[in-house]
From TrEMBL:
Domain-related comment: The last Arg residue of the ACP-binding site is essential for the weak association between ACP/AcpP and FabH.
Catalytic residues in the record: 132, 274, 304
Compartment annotation: Cytoplasm
Biological process annotations from GO: fatty acid biosynthetic process; secondary metabolite biosynthetic process
Beta-ketoacyl-[acyl-carrier-protein] synthase III N-terminal domain sequence ranges: 126-206
Catalytic function, reaction form: (2S)-2-methylbutanoyl-CoA + malonyl-[ACP] + H(+) = (4S)-4-methyl-3-oxohexanoyl-[ACP] + CO2 + CoA; malonyl-[ACP] + acetyl-CoA + H(+) = 3-oxobutanoyl-[ACP] + CO2 + CoA; 3-methylbutanoyl-CoA + malonyl-[ACP] + H(+) = 5-methyl-3-oxohexanoyl-[ACP] + CO2 + CoA; 2-methylpropanoyl-CoA + malonyl-[ACP] + H(+) = 4-methyl-3-oxopentanoyl-[ACP] + CO2 + CoA
Protein name: Beta-ketoacyl-[acyl-carrier-protein] synthase III
EC number(s) given by UniProt: 2.3.1.180
Pfam families: ACP_syn_III, ACP_syn_III_C
Organism: Streptomyces thioluteus
UniProt xrefs under SUPFAM superfamilies: Thiolase-like
């Protein structure tokens, strides 16, 4: 088995060390949304050579949510964004950032149409593409906009429609991924107040880009009618190798972030990792010496939702009252690229969000 590259501190300088003193991005709103359609393991087992037992044992996933035909990433992002703005008690932001692997179109970005549909016309709007690490990269980007004085308030949405890129006949991937969106609002504040995000560790390893990819549709392999194989059109992942990289990179990134924050694993009240696979979460928590009851997981009910996974897990935990003001929270993600990233924060007093699957109101049109 080839050994993994070294996992020392990332070459990427930590915004924590370069952020202007006295100005930080502070979490002030949180929400999530998953589409109503539930796809159970039993449903998948009826058309794929798999079983509820295999899926639960190997991944911890019991079900996932899929959008209806015709619904796209922006539809989910708008719903999560609207809820997050309500949670923050605001209807204005200076920037909208959408972290996604499944934009509505290759061009333009999805964030501007989301901003327009939320009545935020005129706000800066752009997408962040870092696959399942997208939310943490987006958090660092939003924090940078605020620290630099470019924005006072930012809406960051992680949203992915994996059902649009997964081959429904690929049993390895079709069982893992689900659709959803989670969002946070960040405002300018001080680095020492609860909710201040800082102490980031971000990294990448592009030499392993082929481990997780959609091969066709970009400038490298263009999409011409009749020329692209089914395999190249869909998401592919070398699951076993990715599993190994995920565990190593997430644990190393979490450690780097704790060191930057001058904290120890025992200071972490809630470890909120990207919900890739329950076995990955267990391995990372064990590596860090964290008991599993400190590890937040909603993978059983939503599967792996890519860039939406961390904000959805946070929303679920905050809605259930598991995460409370003053708790120390460590976020860690890993995804295609390869990419990884972590962030440490102390939880602020927030309006309690609803559960992501509570529909409450119609999907915004
Ligand atoms: O979110 C971005 C990062 N993504 C991840 O971190 C995901 C990382 N990878 C994983 O979660 C796991 O590797 C998978 C869930 C994708 C696969 O689990 P695994 O335990 O690594 O299984 P495997 O790929 O090593 O396959 C073991 C066996 C194989 O059969 P043989 O060759 O041993 O006969 C597979 O063909 O399981 C078979 N298999 C299945 N069997 C029933 C693969 N998928 C299925 C399935 N149902 N759905």
């Amino acid at each position: 088995m080839p050994s993994l590259p070294p996992t020392g501190p990332s070459a990427f300088p930590s915004p924590a060390s370069s952020a202007p003193q006295g100005r930080a991005a502070v979490l002030c709103g949180l929400a999530g949304w998953v589409p109503p359609r539930v796809v159970t393991n039993e449903e998948l087992s009826r058309r794929l050579d798999t079983s509820d037992t295999w899926i639960r044992t190997r991944t911890g996933i019991g079900q996932r949510h899929f959008v209806e035909p015709g619904q796209a990433t922006s539809d989910m992002a708008v719903e999560a964004g609207r809820r997050a703005l309500r949670s923050a008690g605001t209807d204005t932001v200076d920037a909208v950032v959408v972290a996604t692997t499944t934009p509505d179109r290759p061009c333009p970005a999805t964030a501007p149409v989301v901003a327009a549909r939320l009545g935020l016309d005129g706000a800066a709007a752009f997408d962040v593409s870092a696959v399942c690490t997208g939310f943490v990269y987006g958090l660092a980007s939003a924090a940078g906009l605020i620290a630099a004085g470019v924005a006072e308030r930012v809406l960051l949405i992680g949203a992915d429609t994996y059902s649009s890129i997964i081959d429904p006949d690929d049993r390895s991937n079709a069982i893992i991924f689900g659709d959803g969106a989670g969002a946070v609002v960040l405002r300018a504040g001080s680095p020492d107040e609860p909710g201040a995000v800082g102490h980031f560790d971000l990294g990448s390893d592009g030499s392993n880009e082929e481990m997780i990819m959609v091969a066709a549709g970009g400038s490298r392999q263009r999409t011409s009618p009749g020329e692209v194989s089914r395999e190249d059109r869909h998401f592919s992942m070398r699951g076993r190798e990715v599993f190994r990289h995920a565990v190593t990179r997430m644990a190393a990134s979490a450690r780097n972030t704790l060191a930057l924050a001058d904290r120890k694993a025992e200071d972490v009240d809630h470890f909120v990792p990207h919900q890739a696979n329950l076995r990955i979460l267990r391995s990372v928590a064990e590596d860090l010496g964290l008991p599993m009851d400190h590890c937040v997981s909603n993978v059983e009910s939503v599967g792996n939702t890519g860039a939406a996974s961390i904000p959805l897990a946070l929303t679920d935990a905050a809605a259930r009252g598991t995460i409370r003001p003053g708790d120390n929270v460590l976020l860690t993600a890993f995804g295609g690229g390869l990419t990884w990233g972590s962030c440490f924060l102390t939880w602020p007093a927030l309006a309690q969000p609803g559960l992501p699957h509570d529909q409450g109101e119609e999907l915004a049109s």
